[in-house]
Amino acid sequence: MKIPHKIFGIAMLVFLMMGSTILYSTYKLYLVSREATDLAEIFIPLSDQVGEIGIQVLLQETHVERHQKHLIEARLIEVKRDELIAAVPSSSNLVPSADNDDRIAELESDHAALIEEIATNEKAYDELETRLDASLSRAEADVESAIANAATINGQNTLSALLPMVQAIEQQQSSLNDQLRLLVQTLKEGRVQHLQLEDLIEAEQEKLASQLDATEDKLAHYMLGASGRAEEHERQALLVSVALTIASGLLALLASGLVIRTMLVPLRRLIAGTNEVENGNLTGELKALTKDEIGDLTRSFNGMVEGLRKSEQIKVKFGQYVDPRVVSALIEETGKELMSGERKVVSVFFADLANFTGISERFTPEGVVTLVNHYLAMMSEPVTQHQGLIDKYIGDAIMAFWTPPFCDDGQQATLAVRAALQDAALVRIFRQELPALTGLARDLPDIHMRIGIATGDAIVGSIGSEKSKNYTVIGDTVNLGSRLESANRIYGTTILVCRQTFEMASGAFEFRKIDDLLVFGKTEPVSVYEPLGAVSALDRDLLTYRDQFEEALALFHKGAWTDAQNAFQACKQSRENDSACDTYLKRLTMIKQDGPPPEWNGVWHMDSK
Q1: Residue 435, SS3?
Q2: Percent above pLDDT 90 for the chain
Q3: Which fold has domain 46-227?
Q4: What pTM was computed for the model?
C-alpha cells in the first residue's frame, strides 16, 4: 500500500471516529433540548399557574373572612338598633328622647354603609370565584393539551399523574365555594349553624391546601429530575466526545508511527520521538542504527530524554507536597535537611468548625461540600498569606504550622496569632455569605470557629511511606495545639493560645489569661490565653475589663471563692456577653454546692480531648 493511501486511511479512520463523536453529541444535545423544551414550555408555566391558583385561593379565603366580619357587624347593628327602638316609650306616656333617636339614626346609617360594603364584597367575591374557576379550568385544559404535546416520556407520565390532581383541586375548590356561600347565607339569616360550618370550611381549606402543596411538589420533583437528566446528557456527551477524540488522536499517532517505521528513515524516527516527548511521553528510547551524525543525534536525543525523565521523576516525588515553598526547598541543597527532619521551634495552628455534624445534617452532600470548600478557602488564605504551611485538612478542620526557613525565626507565634484573628473576623463575613451559599433565607446554621495555637519544640520533616510523604510536624506541641482548640468549648472562646505563644506574640498583640489548665494527656499544667487584638487597635475599656477579669481569675486560683464570685459578678455587670466569665460563675456555683476540687492548686483539669 502506497504512503498516500496509508495517510488517507488514517485520515478516514479519524474522520469516522470524529463523525461518531459528533453524531452521539448531537443526539445527547437533542435529548437535552427535549428536556429543556418540556421545562420551558410546559412545566415552568404550569408551576406558575398552580402558584397563581394558590394565591387566588388565599385571596378568596381572606375576602370571605372580611365579608363574614361585615355580616356579623351588620347583624350586631341590627340587634342594637332593634333594642333601641323597643326601648322608645309610647307617645301617650313620655316624650321620645332626642338622643335615642339620634343614636338609632346613626346605627341605621352605619347599617346602610355596611349593607353597601357587603354588596360590593359579594360582587368582588363573585369576580374572584369566576377568575379562580377560569384559572382551574385553564390549568386542567393546559395539562390535557400538554400530555399530547410533551417532548419526553417522563413529561407525559408526569402530566398524566398531574391531571387527576388538578381535577381534584377543582372539585375541592367547588365544594369549598359551596360551603363558603352557605356560610354567608347562614350569617345573613342569623342562624347559629355558622360555627359548625366554619369548622367544616377550615377542614376543607386544609384539604385544598394539601392538594395544592402535593401538586407543587410533583411539579418541583419533575423539574429537578429534568434538570438532572439534562445535565447528565450533557456530561455524557462531553465524556464521550473527549474519550473518542483522545482515542482517535492516539490511533492516528499509532498509525502514523507504523507508516514512518516502515520507511526505515532514521530522521523520521527522530521526529516521531521528538513529538512523543513534546506530548509528554518520556518512556521511549530510540536505537542508534548508524554511527554517523544521525546516530550521534539519536544518542544525544536519548540522553536528553533520560534527563527529562529524571526531572519528571523529581516533579512527581515533590508533587506529594502541598506548599510550593516546601517543593522548592526540597529540590535545593537544604532538601536533605528537610527530608531527614530536625527539632525546631514551631507554632502549630488547629482550627475547627463548631457543631459541624449538626450543620452538615441540614444540607445535601453537595451542599455540604460547597459550604466546606468555601469555608476552607476563606480560612486558609490568612494562613498562607502570613507564611504558614497548611499541613492537612481533616474534614472541616485545618492544621497548619509556622517554622523556619518558611518564616522568620522568632515570628512564628506572632504570624500564627495574626492569621487566627483574621480567620475569626472572616467567620463573620462567612456568616453573611451563608444565604447565597445555602439558598436559605432563614433558619441558617449558627457558624462558630474554634482555634488553638501552641508554640514549642517539635520535629519537622518528611514523614510517610516511600510512595507518599508529607512534610509535617510531630511532637507534644502538636497535641497541645489540638487540645487548646477543643478547650474553646469549655470557655466559649474562639481562640486560645499557650503561654509560649503569648510570650512570643505579646509585643504585637494584647491577651488576657483564661486559666491554668491541665489538658487531657499531659501531666504538667499550661497557662491558657485569649488574644484580644493588635496592641494599637484596642480601646481602653477592653483593656480595663481584661485587668478586671484577670483579678477575678487570680482570686479563683487562690481558692478565695466568695471574693472570686463577687469579682466575676462585677465582670458580668461590665460585659454581659463574656462566655468565659459565665464559665467561672458556673464553676463557682458548682463549688458552692459540691465543695472545691480536692487538693486545689489553681489548676483546672480537662478530662476529655
Answers
A1: helix
A2: 27
A3: Methane Monooxygenase Hydroxylase; Chain G, domain 1 (1.20.58)
A4: 0.50
